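Troubleshooting: if your tokenizer reports a length mismatch, compare against these two reference records.
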Amino acid sequence: MRRPTLHVALAVCLVLAGCSVLGDDPVREGAAVERLDAASERAATLESYRYDLSFTVESSASSRRVGGSGTGRINLTTRHATTNLTVDGTTRRSYVDNRTAYVQCPGVAGGPSVFWGQEDVPTEHDWRETTPIGRQLAMLSTGDLYYNGTETIDGREVVHLTGAPSKSELDRYGAGAGSRPLFGSPNVDSLTVSLWLDERTNRPVRSEVTVVVSGDGETATATLTTRYRDYGERVEVTVPAEVREKAMRGGCPT
């Protein structure tokens, strides 16, 4: 079995394409729903933000723990975004220009490549829902949702929500650019989403997605943590001309 690093990390970022989730009727606590609605209303007014992310992947097939980190910035007004993701010391970039995504292809032995893939951002989703904050809020819009009280993060009072998205919501985000199945024929054993909201402004401060998948007698656990910052600050994203010129339509070769 191939090392699960890229497969699992990609699945977390793309919200698990092609996976199945089993669950009972959802439990949605009133206080959590009220706070989530307030966060969604606030998110609709956002113009820009930056974020930092980190992820870890562990597999039962290996004692090795793989991690990665990245940064990104979003301009919701112009519909531009960019992300730098570093895994095993190699950094790859991506850009989004409205409904077109440009992804740096992996090179030899997983290193960076001079080639780029051009992919379409699904039009069935509102553009804001394709961004990190929009995706987290959408995932919590169905399935179980719980209110876990308040906590303090970096001296800031925050409200902690947790949830388990419904299969329909995961399927809705399973289509689109870059979707890949896990382990050939995977099952999601568990998936949880945690979201910490500023108690005063209802803006997201941090989110965490933890997913356990299994297949072929093996299990992998991935955790993606994102911290949001710099709301409303000036964010400029420009897709370099050479990236547009080199990008291969249909995405990177598989």
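Reference record two:
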Amino acid sequence: MASPAAVRDVAPLHPVYLHQLYRDPAPEPEPLLPSVRRELLFFCRTLKWCILGFIFLASFLVLMWIIFHPSFPLLNVVSASMSPVSFTATAASADCNITLVLTNPNHHLAASYDRMEISLLYASQQVPLSKFHQPRVVQRKHSQTTLQANLSFFGIDLGGGVASAMKQDLDRGSLGLTIKIFSVIKFRNGKWKTKSRYMRAYCPGVSFGFVSSTRSGIFLNPYQECQVYLYSK
């Protein structure tokens, strides 16, 4: 049994009430001021419309590029004729007529060709023989145009080496020529048009077979496809 002194040393007991076991919850944050809310809402709406506008503009530009981006014209040598080639010393002469088909493959763009120049070259030496200037050509959308070029040459001085090489080709029964085309081209859709571009086309391997020196040449590769290039001025 505890002594009276030990009982006196024990701390007195105090009653504990229920409301002392809990703390008041943290105060709720004060609501945003109406002006701050309006500014935040305006910013969000502006950002949304800017994003939508950017997406619409980008889609529109891509669509316009797909529709109006011009495809290269197509050019083919469909027929050709050549008379026997005659020589006077180092000069050569022959009648030569070429038929080309120019195709505009664009479904949404018309094309116009200015200052078109068609040249005939002796293929193995790349020596120019004749030149033909084609009047202005205007093509509708997705259409074809036939071009007739008179590339005859008369008394063109080739020099001894080139004349000798051409005679050897004729003696072997064939003569290879190259056609080059240069033009300034524009594409148009209504009032909208592209800036002017240069067009260069190369038609290699235009060959004629000769069975004798007195008979006309036979065009060996009809529908010869040309290589077409476009580049900015």
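Descriptive notes for reference record two:
- The two ends are 119 Å apart (CA to CA).
- Helices lie at 4-9, 34-68, 160-172.
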